[in-house]
Amino acid sequence: MKYEKKIPLRKDCGLHLFKELLNGKWKLMLIYYISTGLKRPGELQRKIGTADRRVLANQLNELVLHSFVSKVIFDTKVPKVEYELTDLGKSLLPIILNLEAWGENNRAVLEKALPV
């Protein structure tokens, strides 16, 4: 049974599209880490240690589906998969880096806002 959203997707606003396609706890971090050279699923799993492997796999598959990341499958005796950023994924890097800088610049206030 396929899940159907109760509230229709608004396509008239870029922010809604961004939220819809990049909604996910690890998607922005996955894009960032792939850009730094981590390309194998196991490498990404180790870097984001608290993430469940299945959740990461689902979010990587969604990033591939939405053309932010490409998946390269190597036909070897032991199957090997690597991920690379597409041009669309690379275009997100300045935004991700700005968000990271904003978080660092506001660390004291943000840490106070976190639940205990």
Characterization of the model:
There is one protein chain. This protein is mainly α. It has helices spanning 14-22, 27-35, 41-47, 53-65, 87-105, 107-113; strands spanning 69-74, 80-85. A two-stranded antiparallel sheet has the order 1-2. A hairpin with a 5-residue loop joins strand 1 and strand 2 (80-85). The N and C termini lie far apart (38 Å).
- List the strand order in the largest sheet: 1-2
Shape descriptor reads globular
Q: Span between N and C termini? A: 38 Å
Q: Stretches where pLDDT falls below 50 for ≥5 residues?
A: none
For the largest beta-sheet, the strand count, sense and barrel status come to:
2 strands, antiparallel
Mean pLDDT: 91
| Rg over CA atoms | 16 Å
What is the ordering of alpha helices and beta strands? HHHHEEHH
Number of DSSP E strands: 2
Strand-residue proportion: 5-15%
> What is the overall number of helices?
6
Structural class: mainly alpha
Helix content: 55-70%
Structure described in brief:
The protein has 116 residues and is mainly alpha-helical.
Give structural attributes.
single chain; globular; two-stranded antiparallel ribbon; 116 residues; 6 helices; 2 strands; mainly alpha
Architecture blueprint of SSEs:
Elements: H1 14-22, H2 27-35, H3 41-47, H4 53-65, E1 69-74, E2 80-85, H5 87-105, H6 107-113
Antiparallel strand pairs: 1-2
Helix pairs in contact: 2-5
